[in-house]
Structure formats: C-alpha cells, structure tokens
Amino acid sequence: MSGLRRLGIDEIALRKGHKDFAVVLSDLDTHRLIGMAPARTHAAIEAVLNTWGAEVLSNIEEVSMDLSGNYRGLVHRLMPQAEIVADRFHVMSLVNQELNQARNALRRTPEALAEGVTPEAAKAALKSSKYALLKPEAHLTKTQQDKLVEVKAVSPKLALMHQTKEAFRTRFEAQSWAQALPGFLGWMGTAQSLYPEAVATMKRWFGEILQYFEHRTTSGVVEGINTRLKLIKRSGRVHQL
What we know:
Transposase IS204/IS1001/IS1096/IS1165 DDE domain-containing protein; 2 domains; alpha/beta; Nucleotidyltransferase, domain 5; Transpos_ISL3; Transposase_DDE; 5-stranded mixed beta sheet
C-alpha cells in the first residue's frame, strides 16, 4: 500500500432496510479494495486506517467521499495534508433524492396539479415514473420519455423540479472551479425553494464540491466495488438457503 495516493471512502448496507453498514476503502488509482471497517463510526474506520501506518497515511493526497459528514473530521485529523473531494455522483444524488421525495409525496396526496387534472389521473401518470424523472434526460428510453411527458403534464412543480435538476447536471461540465463557481452559486439561489435540503448540504460542502474541478476525482471505482460486494452478499444468501 506504499503507493496509495488517492483514497475512496464509501459505505455499503450489510442488510437491506437496516442501519447496519460497513465502510469500504479503495485505491482509486488501482481500482482495488484495500480495506473494510465493520461499522461507520470514527473508531471503527480509524482502527483500520491505523494498521496502514503513519507513512502510508501521510502520502495520501486526495480522499473522495460522499456528503454524509461522518468522515470529513476523521480525514482532517489523520490525513491533514489530503484534499477532500465531494464525489459528484453523491452530490447529484442529493438532488435526485429530493426530487423523488416530492414525487412520492405527490403520489400520496395529489395537490397543486395542472388545471383540469384529477387526483386519479395524477396518480396514474405518476405510477412507475421514478426513472423517467431521475435518469439524465438524454439517456431515457422512448417509454421513459413518454412517461416524463405525462408527469410534466399533471404536475407543474415536478416539471420545474425536473428542469432544475437537469440544469444542475450541466454544472459539472465546467472546465475549472473558477468557471464552475458562478454556475453553482446561481443554481443554489434559484433552486433554494425547490431543493432546500440539497442546497443546505451543498453550502456545508461547497469547498469540497469545487475540489472536484481541480482533480476530477470521483468514487465511481468505490461504487463498482460496492456493487460487486452486494452481488457476493446475495450469492451467499442463496447458498445458505
């Protein structure tokens, strides 16, 4: 592990629907799993990191993580020289989660619908609409495109939230943090009323979000490892049956 320079930190649920998590530590350059902590507490993670030795930790230059807030203080303490990068996919997921919450709320209690739209018609349009709203619009299938048109027709709020979500996605196309800065600030001002939780989190992590444009570091490698670990877990359950 002497060559470790870029570290990815993410978590994986040990049991679906429960609050049991393990923390996955990965080398973002070699795409290798290099450690796992049995819980997402600082003590559990620190115990694993300390086994690597001070020399390894002192050579880590970047750490990519989600925006949970659980690991930032630990990294500052154990790896003060490392720059923390907020993973762009987790930043985007903040927006998607709030959009999906609004979709689910409208499914339960249809309100503020377009003129002439009944609650029954709204519920029908919103059925199976999750991916039509959350996927990048450019990647939608024809069926999903049709569903998105249905959703926008019944709910002006979801139509505006979707438009605002797609606008946010383009902010990551900036070529530098200086170019990205006005776009992010402008988006947060415009989106405050639609995405209050996402905007509040972005404000707390603004520096780390802009670090993405310095290094283009993401935890996509970690997500791939997490996916393989989930497949292993499922396979293990099958063999136990």
